[in-house]
Amino acid sequence: MDFKRSDFPEGFLWGAATSSYQIEGHRFGGAGLTHWDSFAATPGNVVRAENGDRACDHYHRFEDDLDLLAAAGFDAYRFSTSWARVLPEGRGTPNAEGLDFYDRLTDAMLERGLKPCATLYHWELPQPLADLGGWRNRDIAGWFGDFTEVIMGRIGDRMHSVAPINEPWCVAWLSHFMGHHAPGMRDIRAAARAMHHVLLAHGTAIQRMRGLGMSNLGAVCNFEWADPADDSDAAREAALDYDAIYNRFFLGGMFHKAYPERVLSGLEPHLPEGWQDDFDTIAAPVDWVGLNYYTRKLIGPTVGPWPAHEEVDGPLPKTQMGWEIYPDGLYNFLTRTASEYTGDLPLYVTENGMASAEPHEDQDRIAYLNAHVAKAQQAMAEGVPLKGYFIWSLLDNYEWALGYEKRFGLVHVDFESLQRTPKASYEALKLALSK
Ligand code: FCB
User: Fold this and answer.
1) pTM value?
2) Does 255 contact ligand 1 (Cβ within 6 A)?
3) What residue spans of 112-187 are helical by DSSP H?
4) Tens of pLDDT along 156-173?
5) Of 28, 32, 38, 155, which is the most buried if we count CB atoms within 10 A?
């Protein structure tokens, strides 16, 4: 790598990230059905209709996977807890095996000197709750609060940090407006409600964890830089709308107690009654914010109802996902988040990395990480309080609607034998992070 641990302040955290449904193997250990299982079973939604039944079999191999993290010299591990593994019905009686699993996982991290950084929800909504309307139903805030208390009542005493919800934009917009992720809806009213309820659930979970006496609680949002596809006013407006929906709505709710006007112009008629009264919960104080960043989009106008914009193919080199590589976007978001929303609050890069078809000699991933880390350093030099950097992902895993084909891992996984093989990027990071 072009950087090493000693280039960063003492205590700067290096970590890798994963999520439960993407690696654990959801058919093991008494987990309940999730909306990803039914989404994946519906023809046309997921490449080869693949699902998370076995995934990386992390459920049985977590000790070895944590050994890999520790051997690379990582300080922290960002993992997530599956709601449906803990509460197979979404509510009611916990699955003892599920709680035991996260308990053992936590202790296994601590035994290896890894700081446990939990995300409570990384997208596998229990199917019985999806049947009740899922994120469209306001009651989800309370259901999620109850889940938070059950899981954190068991492992919360040993967490280094916790964030309630991974990437509210994906939970709400990608899944209810664009239809690309479970539950696969394309409905503006559903999207508006999910946008608001995901924030209400976030704030409720923060309050419940404060009630348990927990600290170092944060929020993890994803960001895509939006550039106009051409010089026209229409393209500039389209990019600003995209930016408002994607990058400003959730931070706006949490830090300004307000949604951007540009978003309200389309969504307000569809928001649930009384939404204006929820901001005290939504803006429950957090201790840090995590940014997930991968790419930028070129945005142009289209004809049709709001938001009347579309992505346009861009000219920059692309990853295996077809995502343009644009490290400046990370710098832009770190500086903008600090100056417009979070001030002195610690920031973390909670996800950054790339999919590459290269199974072992992934020099492209090394170059991608070098370029992005350099931009993070630039932001830090200008005073942004960045305190850590987590790479997505430790392992090749279930990349949602794209199945097992898109490989984000520092460690290669053979999905037949399940054998793990560290890639060149893993070895390079190991050298860079050694103390
Ligand atoms: C993020 C998700 C993560 C993974 C990466 C590539 O949006 O949080 O689960 O899919 O993208």
Assistant:
1) 0.98
2) no
3) 127-131, 140-155, 168-169, 175-176
4) 999 999 999 999 999 999
5) 32
